[in-house]
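$ ./design --mode recover --in tokens.txt
reading tokens...
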């Protein structure tokens, strides 16, 4: 797409896939997300709204977008005011709707494996009970995700920093070394891992969170270098501040003059 050309006024699923170079299954996932623009009565989407969403939420796809053939261009369809994000959410899957794991994965933009891991969470932060075998009420899961997977909620509602590739779903206490930290942070901010040397530089300059574990801290499992919990790295990704700002609890070192 060249700067002088705008997307067609109305666009369908095939058009979205063609414009942004995405497979049908990816487009199907997008249109079921809570913050994706609502379709009109004709089952198509306002192309400019879609373009704005892709630019903000899927920058890797937006940068690779192409101009659709003239044949795909259609005239605007008269309609009322565009629906809000919350109305879109209700239209996609109401809070009373019962969803299986696959439906929940589409709703929150995560993998079915991630949802499967959520459903096994027990204790004080336990996942909501099934209403029917293998089916959960969407509203109850919405509340759980908002409270216990705030980074997922922030991403789908547009209330948090945009990420290119979200941090992995896993045990919040999974440990990562500085190289793993760089992989997750780099994927989130630019779509590819930070080199280990760059992550080490960030650490020295105070741009990473303080490590959760250190060699010789006498905790289990034993570690032999600075390491971070997944939850710590994820918190960093979704609470990023302006470039050059120090992370909480860190101070910038100054060199001694000789």
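writing sequence...
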């Amino acid at each position: 797409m060249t700067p002088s050309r705008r997307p067609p006024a109305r666009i369908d699923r095939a058009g979205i896939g063609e414009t942004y170079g995405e497979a049908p299954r990816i487009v199907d996932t997008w249109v079921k997300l809570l913050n994706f623009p609502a379709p009109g009565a004709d089952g198509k989407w306002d192309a400019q709204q879609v373009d704005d969403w892709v630019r903000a939420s899927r920058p890797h796809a937006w940068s690779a977008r192409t101009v659709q053939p003239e044949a795909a261009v259609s005239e605007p369809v008269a309609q009322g005011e565009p629906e809000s994000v919350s109305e879109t959410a209700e239209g996609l899957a109401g809070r009373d709707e019962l969803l299986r794991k696959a439906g929940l994965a589409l709703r929150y933009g995560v993998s079915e494996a991630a949802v499967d891991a959520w459903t096994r969470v027990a204790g004080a932060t336990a996942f909501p009970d099934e209403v029917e075998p293998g089916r959960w009420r969407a509203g109850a899961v919405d509340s759980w995700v908002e409270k216990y997977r705030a980074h997922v909620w922030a991403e789908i509602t547009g209330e948090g920093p945009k990420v290119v590739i979200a941090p992995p779903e896993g045990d919040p206490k999974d440990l990562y070394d500085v190289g793993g930290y760089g992989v997750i942070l780099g994927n989130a901010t630019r779509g590819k891992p930070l080199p280990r040397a760059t992550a080490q530089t960030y650490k020295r300059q105070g741009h990473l969170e303080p490590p959760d574990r250190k060699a010789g801290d006498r905790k289990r499992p034993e570690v032999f270098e600075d390491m971070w919990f997944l939850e710590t790295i994820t918190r960093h990704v979704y609470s990023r501040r302006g470039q050059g700002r120090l992370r909480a609890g860190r101070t910038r070192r100054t060199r001694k003059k000789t």
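exit 0
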